[in-house]
Target: Golgi SNAP receptor complex member 1
Amino acid sequence: MAAGTSNYWEDLRKQARQLENELDLKLVSFSKLCTSYSHSSARDGRRDRYRKNYLENIPGEILQ
Model:
């Protein structure tokens, strides 16, 4: 019975390590996704500010 109990705990440890590895991979993927989204949002913000400044200056350029 001691051997059966030992195998049971070993199986649980093995399963826990597998779940931990899967979770780590998912967290890395999520982190990469968030980083790329963050960079994309920052780039879009700069582009929007550029467009706004450009559009605000058009009437002055036309009148000159």
In short: The mean pLDDT is 79.
